[in-house]
């Protein structure tokens, strides 16, 4: 195999996000449901025989040492790979949005290079590497919508009544972004939400819970509230995803999403029942 082209890296939305507490090491304990959507980055991989790793930014310029290069370097080292790769990234998912774009890119990179380099590492090994890159990377490697707990390491597939129905969403990324660290460091952050149950989520799905990070985010970025209010004028009930600044709303009816402020990115997205790369590593359906 010499190349893999058009490798997708889908974004995610947090249908709710509750903060239950904080560990002594500073990490926060959370509960959330992560849902895949069809807003994707696209990556291209070409084999290099000189062992070097290189990257080409096909749309948005990325930091010199982004998560994709870090993922490639980690897999190369851990797998004892002599070959290298040239990676092209067509970035579409906005940064500083709470949509997991960088983590998804890293996961797709691990899955693709695992194939391109002929490593055939099992999913468990890739997950362990992914966790070293970021807490959200294992979710994208698992390949299914999930109930997530702990600091993000406990990933449970949605089953039975909790399985998400197919649905459409308005997703809005305001021009301003948000820094995750500053939100988690805020004294205003609610850190004592009661533990939720999957059965409670299954009864409501898209209307369940709230995002505990949203009140703090609104104090740091007025665009978050502005975007939520803008969707409300379209008859849509929105909340923030992740640490923002993107917000989303289920679309039970058609809505006019034109006329937004300049610089906003707006898409109508469908949720995905399964990651498009599901099955690219063994034990992909592990729960």
How is this structure best described in words?
There is one protein chain. The chain is of the alpha+beta class. It has 2 domains: 3-157, Ribosomal Protein S5, domain 2 (2-Layer Sandwich), CATH 3.30.230; 160-270, 2-Layer Sandwich (Alpha-Beta Plaits), CATH 3.30.70. Helix content is 26%, strand content 28%. It is built from 8 helices and 10 strands. It has helices at 67-79, 101-116, 123-133, 137-142, 180-184, 198-204, 214-220, 222-232, and strands at 3-22, 28-48, 53-57, 84-90, 146-150, 154-157, 168-173, 239-240, 247-250, 265-270. Strands 1, 2, 3, 4, 5 and 6 form a 6-stranded mixed beta sheet that branches. A 4-stranded antiparallel beta sheet has the order 8-9-7-10, with helices on one face. Helix 1 (67-79) runs parallel beside helix 2 and helix 7 (214-220) crosses helix 8 (222-232). It is globular and about 55 Å long.
């Amino acid at each position: 195999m010499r190349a893999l082209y058009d490798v997708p890296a889908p974004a995610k939305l947090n249908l709710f996000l509750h903060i239950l507490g904080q560990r002594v090491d500073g990490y926060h304990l959370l509960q959330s449901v992560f849902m895949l959507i069809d807003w994707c980055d696209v990556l291209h991989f070409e084999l290099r025989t000189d062992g070097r790793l290189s990257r080409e930014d096909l749309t948005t310029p990325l930091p010199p040492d982004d998560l994709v290069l870090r993922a490639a370097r980690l897999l190369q080292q851990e797998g004892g790979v002599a070959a290298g790769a040239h990676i092209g990234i067509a970035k579409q998912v906005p940064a500083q949005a709470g949509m997991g774009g960088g983590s998804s890119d890293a996961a797709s990179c691990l899955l693709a290079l695992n194939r391109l380099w002929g490593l055939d590492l099992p999913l468990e090994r890739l997950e362990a590497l992914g966790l070293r890159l970021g807490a959200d990377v294992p979710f994208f490697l698992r390949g299914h919508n999930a109930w997530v707990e702990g600091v993000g390491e406990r990933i449970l597939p949605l089953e039975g009544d909790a399985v998400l129905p197919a649905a459409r969403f308005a997703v809005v990324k305001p021009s301003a972004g948000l820094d995750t660290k500053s939100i988690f460091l805020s004294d205003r952050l609610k850190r004592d939400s009661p533990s939720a149950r999957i059965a409670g989520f299954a009864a409501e799905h898209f209307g369940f819970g709230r995002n505990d990070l949203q009140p703090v985010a609104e104090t740091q970025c007025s665009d978050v509230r502005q975007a939520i209010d803008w969707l409300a004028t379209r008859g849509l009930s929105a909340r923030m995803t992740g640490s923002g600044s993107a917000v989303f709303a289920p679309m039970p009816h058609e809505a006019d999403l034109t006329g937004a402020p300049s610089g906003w990115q707006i898409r109508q997205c469908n949720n995905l029942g399964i990651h498009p790369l599901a099955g690219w590593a063994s034990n992909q359906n592990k729960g």
